[in-house]
Amino acid sequence: MLTAGDVTVRPMELEDIPLLHEWSKDLEIEHQSGWAPWMSRARFDRRWEDFIREPPEDLVLLGIQYRAALVGYVELAGLSHRERRAAIGFVVADRAVRRQRVGATAVILAMDYGFSLEDLDRIYAEVYPFNLPSLRLLEQVGFQREGVLRQHEVHQGRRTDLVILGMLRQEFYAHHPSRLPGGFSN
Question: Fewer CB under 10 Å: which end of the chain, C or N?
Answer without folding.
Answer: N
